[in-house]
Design a protein that fits this description.
The complex is a heterodimer of chains A (425) and B (160). Chain A has helices spanning 2-18, 20-45, 61-84, 95-116, 120-129, 136-169, 173-181, 190-196, 198-224, 236-263, 270-302, 308-315, 320-333, 335-345, 348-378, 390-413. By secondary structure, chain A is mostly helical. Chain B is mainly alpha-helical and 160 residues long. Helices cover 44% and strands 8% of the residues of chain B. Chain B has helices at 13-17, 39-45, 50-54, 65-78, 119-147, 149-159, and strands spanning 24-26, 31-33, 84-86, 98-100. Classes of the chains: A mainly alpha (425), B mainly alpha (160).
Chain lengths: 425, 160
Amino acid sequence: MINQVKNYLDILLNDMERSPAFYIWISVLVALMGLAAYTILMSLIYNLEIFEFSIHVIWVTMVSNYVFLVVSSTGLCIVTSLGHVFGMQRYELVAKRGVFLALITIIFGMISIGAHLGHPERAMVFNALTPNFRSAMWWMGTLYTFYIVFISVEYWLLARPELIERSDQTDGVERTIFSYLALKKLDDSRLGAVLKDHRLLQAVGAAALVSGLAAHNTLGALFGHIEARPLWYGSYYPVYFLLSASFCGFAWLLAVSIATYKLKREEIPEEYMSLIFEMAQVLALLLSVGLLFTVYKMGFGLFTPSKVKPIMLFLKGPFSFAFWVFEIGIGTVLPVPILLYAAGKRKITGVLVASVMVLVGVYVMRYDFIVAAQVYPVIQAGLPSYLPAFMEVLFIGGVLGALFLTYTLGEKFLPLKEKKHQHAA
Amino acid sequence: MVVNEKRCIGCRYCYQACPYKVPQFDFEKRVTRKCTLCYDRILLNYSKPACVAACPAGALSFGYKHEIILAAKRRVSKEKSARYILGLTEAGGTDMLTILPARPQDLGLVVAPRKVVNQNLDKLRITGAGFMGASALAGIMYTYATLTRNTDKRDHDQSG
């Protein structure tokens, strides 16, 4: 066992020696995690107030980061389920990478919100012991728990054939580890036949999709139910969150997979190439629909007396720069022509740039959405600054650093590559 | 209303739900706190809350809700100019009444919504809209899959 760990460390260290960029990448991520650990330690020694920029704006970056990550997770689940749930064979290529990303984004999203809670250890206990069925928060917690279970099983089922393959190719401790990971013993039993059946994967994928969509809907409803915050109140956000989840999912998958191939200087498989350009076109379409939704929100808000003031915060107030430049410009309008041009000319870099732009825009949009709704009715005179507290930025940097480190390690040691999925006919 | 500090998970959702910013987060103990109208004092000694007992001018008064409503109306009727009683109808009637010289929106205060619809129905409406959206999304995904199935077959034939 220790030998095995040493072996893996050797692989990592070898890679680091061979490429300084990889060395820097890993060190930066670890450093970010160290800084985040420092902020957590400080919050335990002093108090949670070090994370707040105003005691009246109590949901800030940790919540917006959580929303961003879980929206991405649902989106990735939507994209990947096009493959093995809805039976589009070309999307089965991205299943493993997509489901793995969905799994790690939801887990680090949960870590982000866990650090924001005063008592995260009680959340699980009292969610189970004393449920309040009328609280959207309860439904969100419960449904996301189911979602995490289903999505983990889904990734395991997807990765299992390749894990078995690896255990056959290797020997010694590695063979044991892989065969335990894949539960290879079951292979000859009746259960093994069930595990290999494509219909089981389809059923688990469908369960993950349904629980994911339901959880996501209750996340939107969590904001939609709050009548005291006019910007959030109403049935707009549950619906819009689903749409933004789908374009976030496409953007994540495109950005991460293209960046991985580019950084590793590997050739992208031909069949995946054509899928990338198809996904780019779908992303452009979804972004245009998203723009329509935003126009509807702004227009409808201007004619609703209670929503005028928070909407004006976006159009003309302190959030106008973030709204016009990031949400509308970088996040929605500019990527559409870039994506269409790149898909027409088959330029892979264009797709990468546009999908990263979408992610940046969506990240800023989530922050505004969380903060602006609290600023209007609570602090009418306005705040001197709307940037998050420095400690919170450090913490979020650590969460994202851990997310990318997990992905890098997964890319190294777990089956993620775009390969044709073999399944029993 | 009293916060059970042993059960509070510190999510601060109650702060967002309150239009009056009443619950406050205790950053030391990591739980939410709010005024309990000194329920422990009242249970023990039948006395008034500390703030009412301390008030030198009788500006604060405490009692059964119907009596307080009557008292507030009596005070307003003695005034020459128009007054507004905050808390009679807002959010279905609150436990705290405040006599204001003008309407809350003219004073720059938060205007709490008056409940006209059943709140459970309202929540169902909002959640239901999301579920309709989710079903529509699943329908669109299904249509996308069915409409482009031919491309799949072509790919499959070429590769296989």
